[in-house]
Write a structure and sequence with these properties.
Layout: H1 4-13, E1 17-23, E2 36-43, E3 56-63, E4 76-83, E5 96-98, E6 101-103, E7 116-118, E8 121-123, E9 136-138, E10 141-143, E11 156-158, E12 161-163, E13 176-178, E14 181-183, E15 196-198, E16 201-203, H2 244-251
Parallel strand pairs: 1-2, 2-3, 3-4, 4-5, 4-6, 5-7, 6-8, 7-9, 8-10, 9-11, 10-12, 11-13, 12-14, 13-15, 14-16
């Protein structure tokens, strides 16, 4: 079904696009600003370079769609599913997302600065080079994702989970973390400076060469993690739990000499 006439009519009348299922549509480069969609399914459609600023999407599905460089700035997304989509350079600046799920998507270099995401799941997605600066994430899950060089600085993270993710050179510097968990991930070379953490747990993670300067580490248990070559603030280590081998390594940082 050709959906373009319907889209044009809805935009002209400021009406909803409602209860439509369409496939194989080429909508690349169109200005769809302020589009309102309800109960719509797009399959194998091209939205690359589309303008969808201030869109209002509720109960919408994108399957096998091309969304690269699509602009959803100031958009509102509720109960939206993205499956197997290519969305490199997707812009979600200042967007609000609730109950959104990304599965098997390529999201490299997407931008979500100042976005507000609640109950959002990223599953088996590539978010390399993405930017979430100054955003707010609540009950957000990153599961088995590639997070190479992802920037999430100065964000507020509440009940956020990173599970089995590859996040070399990830930066969380300046973030506030509450009830967060990092499980089984690789974050070597990452930036974790000046964090403010409450009830945050790490387990089975590789933090080789990470920078923790300025982060109060009371309550952190690194005994099941790799922390070789990390940079610390000695005055912030009180209350941190480490293994015997890790304690010997950290002793040099504190000027302690250990003799057999």
């Amino acid at each position: 079904r050709d959906v373009l006439p319907l889209l044009t009519e809805c935009l002209d009348l400021s009406d909803d696009l409602r209860a439509v299922e369409t496939a194989h549509q080429d909508l690349a480069g169109l200005d769809l600003s302020r589009l309102s969609a309800r109960q719509v399914v797009f399959r194998d459609c091209r939205f690359s370079n589309c303008t969808l600023t201030r869109c209002d999407l509720v109960d919408v599905v994108f399957q096998d769609c091309e969304l690269s460089n699509c602009d959803l700035t100031d958009g509102y997304l509720s109960r939206v599913l993205f499956q197997r989509c290519k969305a490199v350079g997707l812009r979600l600046t200042k967007a609000v997302g609730k109950d959104v799920r990304f599965q098997d998507c390529a999201l490299g270099y997407a931008g979500a600065a100042e976005s507000r995401l609640t109950r959002v799941v990223f599953e088996r997605c590539d978010l390399s080079g993405c930017v979430f600066r100054e955003g707010g994430l609540k009950q957000v899950v990153f599961r088995d994702c590639r997070l190479l060089g992802l920037v999430m600085t100065d964000c507020v993270l509440n009940q956020v989970e990173l599970t089995q993710c590859g996040g070399r050179y990830l930066s969380l510097s300046g973030c506030t973390l509450k009830d967060c968990r990092l499980e089984g991930g690789t974050f070597a070379g990452g930036g974790f400076t000046a964090l403010k953490c409450t009830r945050t747990a790490v387990n089975g993670c590789d933090f080789t060469g990470c920078d923790f300067r300025g982060t109060e580490l009371r309550g952190f248990d690194f005994s099941g993690c790799t922390i070789d070559g990390c940079t610390w603030s000695p005055d912030k280590l009180r209350g941190m739990t480490v293994s015997y081998d890790q304690a010997a390594m950290l002793a040099g940082l504190l000027g302690i000499i250990i003799r057999n």
